[in-house]
Amino acid sequence: MACSCTRPNYKGPGVGIWALALSLEFALGVLMVFLGSDAAPDPVSSLENMDQSLKDLLVNGSAAKAVTIIGWFHLVLAAACGVFVTLGLFVCGIFLCPLCILGWVQTAFCVISTFVTAAYLRKYLDVAAAAVTGEAPEEISADVFFAQLNSPSLLLASVLSFVCSVVLSRAAKVSSGESVPGAALMVESMGLYAAIGAFLGAGGGGVSPTPALTTLWVALCVLGAILMNIRACCCEKICNTLMIVLFGVGALLSFITAVVFARIYAAVVADPLGNAEYARLFVVMEAGIGLVVAAVLSLAACVMSLLATAYAARSLICCGDGVSSS
After folding, report:
1. Backbone angles phi, psi at 294, to 5 degrees
2. Disulfide: which of 96, 136, 241, 294 matches 88 by Cβ 3.0-4.6 Å?
3. Which residues cross the membrane (predicted)?
4. For residue 145, how many C-alpha atoms fall within 13 Å in the half-sphere facing its CB?
5. Phi, psi of 39 (to 5 degrees)
6. What single DSSP character describes residue 98?
């Protein structure tokens, strides 16, 4: 839709997908700006009762500055894209043409934000995991201290940025002939896949089994994005058939992920010292809260995947064109 440069289509699924993508990016930008600015408050007031070394870590560290700059870039990109989307969808389709480039720039920048926030968070989670076995370093760097103070917000920023990249990549390629239910189911399913992958990758601290599950979820997102973009150009029926398989795999993986983390949580609660690796993961994921969140997100993704699979299969069998049939 973004590259079609045709007359505006305010009744198509593009309106909702672009609205979701831009709202997510605006929220991400505001979160990162607030996170970066709030991490280095006025040392005269907020830090007056803190040790001087901690003041130096907060004020002189580079992490807060980097997060703030990235947040402002997100706000600028979202505002610029919002102008073109509004004009293109409601005034003249020619305004959608710049989104051929701008949409992919936003997608790439969201991926960069995911890696940056996850990298900062990982530095702290490595220390937290090492502390369980008594191997934590005596001194921490400015970046680690920043992540320690803001670990929940960094995790949220990482998840939001990755979800935003998936939704933006879909918005940049949605066609005016797609059905609203089909496009919505695809975007919501892929968004949940991205949220789970980013949550486990950034919040799991590299503790088993999060690396393997993160790889599977990210691979599922990448494969889905590739299929959606290929389908926008050619091989529509083949790609729709493959999307049915992808949603089915997503439902199965969602169920497995939910069961795995529910079992880990139950095992640690029943016997905290029974499994050292489970105990490390329990500590890294905010005293088990992250395990519950991962299980709940996985259950939501399982339900959404089953609905998407059923809708895609019914559309393909009954209508012939699959999820893109209007």
Report:
1. -60, -40
2. 96
3. 15-35, 69-92, 99-121, 154-172, 184-206, 212-230, 242-266, 278-307
4. 17
5. -75, -20
6. T
Both tokens of 9, joined, read 């289509």
Distances (CA, A) of 50 to 54, 56, 57, 63: 7, 10, 11, 20
Distance CA 314, CA 323 (A): 9
SS3 20: helix
User: Is residue 50 a contact partner of residue 168, using CB atoms and an 8 Å limit?
Assistant: no
String of DSSP letters for 154-219: HHHHHHHHHHHHHHHHHHTT--TTS-HHHHHHHHHHHHHHHHHHHHHHHHSTT-TTHHHHHHHHHH
What residues contact 20, with CB distance under 8 A and at least 6 apart?
A: 167, 171, 187
Indicate the pTM of the whole model: 0.81
pLDDT band at 298 (very low <50, low <70, confident <90, very high): very high
pLDDT at 95: 75
Check the CA dihedral 297-187-305-113 and report its sign: negative
Residue 312 and residue 241: Cα distance in Å, rounded? 8
Instruction: Give the count of beta carbons closer than 10 Å to the beta carbon of residue 242.
Output: 18
Nearest to 272 by CA among 288, 295, 293: 288
